[in-house]
C-alpha cells in the first residue's frame, strides 16, 4: 500500500533528517519545500529571489506559491508509491488544499508531529551548519559538528535565517500559523506525536513504529 506521510514540527525539530531516513528505508521520495525554495534561491529564479527576502526575515512564503509548488511535485510519477512531505503544509489553508490535491490517491495519510521544547530548538538552529554547495544539513559525527559536507565535500556555513533573532521570529511565526496544524490533524486516527528531544536514532525508531501501526490498521480495515 502506498504510504503518504506528512512530517510536522517546529524549525529545528529534525523533520528533514527523519524524513530523509524514512524515505530511504521505504524507497519513496522525500519532498522538502524548503529544499525546493533554497534551490530556487541558489538558481536565481524569480520565485527564488522573491522567496529569499521573505525567508531572510523569518517569514513564510505565501500559501498560493507553496501550494502550486507542491501540487506540481506530487503530480510526478515517482510519488505513486507514496511520498514524505517535509515543510508542507505549514498553515491550515495549505492543509485543506493538500487534502484536495491527494483526494483519490492512497487513503492512508500518516501525520507525524515531532515535538521539541523551544529552548532546545533555539540551541539547535543557532548552532547548525549547511553546505554552501548542495544545501545539505550534515548530522554530527560522534557528537561533534562536521567540518565539511559528507555528501559533496563543500564548505559548511550558517544559514542566513539561523541567526538567533531570526530563529526566534521563525518560532513565533510557527506558533501562530503552523502549530494549529496539530489541532487540525490531531483527531485523525493516523496522527502521532513523537518526542523529538530524544536522540535521532530513538526518534527514527518511534516514527517507524507509528508508520507500521498505521499500515497494519489500514490493511485490517480493508480486509474486513
Give the overall form: globular
Give the low-pLDDT segments.
none
List the domain count as a whole number: 1
CATH C-level class is Alpha Beta
Instruction: Look up the CATH topology.
Output: Rossmann fold
Roughly how many Å is the radius of gyration? 17 Å
Mean pLDDT: 87
Specify the CATH homologous superfamily: P-loop containing nucleotide triphosphate hydrolases
Q: How widely separated are the two ends?
A: 16 Å
Q: For the largest beta sheet, what order do the strands appear in spatially?
A: 2-3-1-4-7
Helical amount = 40-55%
Helix/strand order: EHEHHHEHEHEEHHEH
Query: What structural category arises from helix and sheet content?
Result: alpha/beta
Work out the helix count. 9
CATH architectural grouping: 3-Layer(aba) Sandwich
Description:
With 224 residues, this protein is an alpha/beta fold. A five-stranded parallel β-sheet has the order 2-3-1-4-7, sandwiched between helices. The chain has a two-stranded antiparallel sheet with strand order 5-6. It is globular. It has helices spanning 15-26, 33-43, 46-56, 63-74, 92-101, 118-127, 164-178, 180-186, 200-222, and strands at 3-9, 30-32, 82-86, 109-115, 130-131, 156-157, 191-195.
Short description:
The chain is an alpha/beta fold and 224 residues long.
Helices and strands in order:
Elements: E1 3-9, H1 15-26, E2 30-32, H2 33-43, H3 46-56, H4 63-74, E3 82-86, H5 92-101, E4 109-115, H6 118-127, E5 130-131, E6 156-157, H7 164-178, H8 180-186, E7 191-195, H9 200-222
Helix pairs in contact: 1-9, 2-3, 4-5, 6-7
Features:
two-stranded antiparallel sheet, Rossmann fold, 9 helices, 14% strand, globular, alpha/beta, 224 residues
Amino acid at each position: 500500500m502506498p504510504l503518504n506521510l506528512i512530517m510536522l514540527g517546529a524549525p529545528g525539530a529534525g523533520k528533514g533528517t527523519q524524513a530523509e531516513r524514512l524515505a530511504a528505508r521505504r524507497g519513496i521520495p522525500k519532498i522538502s519545500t524548503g529544499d525546493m525554495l533554497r534551490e530556487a534561491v541558489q538558481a536565481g529564479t524569480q520565485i527564488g529571489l522573491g522567496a529569499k527576502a521573505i525567508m531572510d526575515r523569518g517569514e513564510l512564503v505565501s500559501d498560493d506559491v507553496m501550494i502550486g509548488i507542491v501540487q506540481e511535485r506530487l503530480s510526478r510519477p515517482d510519488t505513486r508509491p507514496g511520498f514524505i512531505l517535509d515543510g508542507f503544509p505549514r498553515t491550515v489553508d495549505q492543509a485543506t488544499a493538500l487534502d484536495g490535491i491527494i483526494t483519490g490517491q492512497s487513503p492512508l495519510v500518516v501525520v507525524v508531529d515531532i515535538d521539541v521544547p523551544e529552548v532546545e530548538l533555539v540551541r539547535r538552529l543557532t548552532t547548525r551548519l549547511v553546505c554552501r554547495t548542495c544545501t545539505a544539513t550534515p548530522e554530527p559525527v560522534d557528537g561533534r559538528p562536521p567540518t565539511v559536507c559528507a555528501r559533496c565535500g563543500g564548505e559548511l556555513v550558517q544559514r542566513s535565517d539561523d541567526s538567533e533573532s531570526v530563529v526566534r521570529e521563525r518560532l513565533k511565526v510557527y506558533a501562530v500559523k503552523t502549530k494549529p496544524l496539530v489541532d487540525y490533524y490531531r483527531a485523525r486516527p493516523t496522527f502521532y506525536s513523537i518526542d523529538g528531544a530524544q536522540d535521532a536514532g530513538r526518534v527514527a525508531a518511534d516514527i517507524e513504529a507509528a508508520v507500521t501501526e498505521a499500515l497494519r490498521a489500514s490493511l485490517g480495515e480493508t480486509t474486513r
